[in-house]
Amino acid sequence: MNENGKVDDGVYCAGWIATGPTGVIVDTMTSSFQVARTILADLESGRVSGTKSGRGFDGVRDILRKEHRIVTFPNWEKIDTME
Known about the structure:
The chain has four helices and two strands. It is mainly α.
């Protein structure tokens, strides 16, 4: 879930990760521009800083785990083998 590309403070998404597989390249570009505006607004308001928060992939994984079951690459390989 996201609002204008914002998932959580300091965590943003764009493109198909934000909208699902819809639209064409221009739609993805438009979405990306909106996400950039959201990030700039957060920076200007002080809600986030311009430095890396240290959350990185671990932070994204924690957010995803709240609502989704994550398939790791080794588990995907098992699925691929079975298929």
